[in-house]
Amino acid sequence: MIDWEAILYIFLGGAMTMLSVLGLESAIVAPSMDRWSKRFFTAFFTVLVLSSATIFLELVAYVYPNLTLEIITYYLQSLLDVISFPMLAVYLLRCCGEDWQSSPLFRAVLALGAVCVILFSLSQFSPLFYSITPDGQVHFGPAYPLLIVPVLAILLLIAAGVIRRRDKLSQQYYRAFLVCLLPVTLAIVIHMFVPVFLLINVGLTISAFSMYRIIESDSIEQNLRQQQKIATNAPASRYCRCDPTLSTTP
To answer: Where are the domains of the chain?
Structure first.
């Protein structure tokens, strides 16, 4: 029998998958998006699509307990999340007109991401980090916080970078970045003390929605600028039709 937690997993997995696929489709077909943004959002939403797929794998392992599938799913989901967070730093720096490759923020986030990958890989061989029972229950080990602290540090660094660069961002982008970062950051803080994987998935779904809104807003703004440019460059009519005092009669 499927309980309420499984139903929530289905809902969140479906919502995140839908948003990720819509974002990926928008990034691929949007005609007004520049090449760099198109490639970035294509890569970003591809990662989110794969991450949403792990939610369904986790659901399968939950409903039909499978220890091997549970271990693989948890590992893949953790790695995909670690990949997506530094990508947010890259886009932030790009929006602010900074060289992201030489930015101290990006280098710090990248170094912490590498630490996360190493620790998550080591955790597969030691119960000091965590262990999964045959019925799919996760038990934290004494070293589990070592897995969470680098991830939390990445999110806090990016959030601090957003706040520090708020004058370089439009209000719309500033709010979008905060909405993308703060819910998942709060979920991970809670997760350090209570195993609330479902809450992390809620935060990731909100992040996917926020990034999708950025694409939609950017496309609308690009279309408006193109229409204004066309209107500005259009040749003036011989007569103004809205002025009744002008007539074509000689």
So the answer is: 4-220
| Residue pair 92/106 in contact by the 8 Å Cβ criterion | no
Query: Span 4-220: which CATH code?
Result: 1.20.1070.10
- Integer CA distances (angstroms), 72 to 86, 98, 107, 187, in order: 22, 37, 29, 22
Side-chain-side CA neighbours of 57 within 13 Å: the count stands at: 17
> What span, in angstroms and rounded, lies between the C-alpha atoms of 68 and 122?
17
Q: Is 136 left (phi over 0), alpha (psi -120 to 50) or beta?
A: left
CA distances 145 to 31, 33, 123, Å, are: 44, 40, 12
Beta bridge partners of 138: 132
Q: Tens digit of pLDDT for each residue in 113-169? A: 999 999 988 988 888 888 877 766 778 888 888 889 999 999 999 999 999 999 999
The model carries a pTM of: 0.81
- Closest of 112, 119, 124 to residue 147, by C-alpha: 119
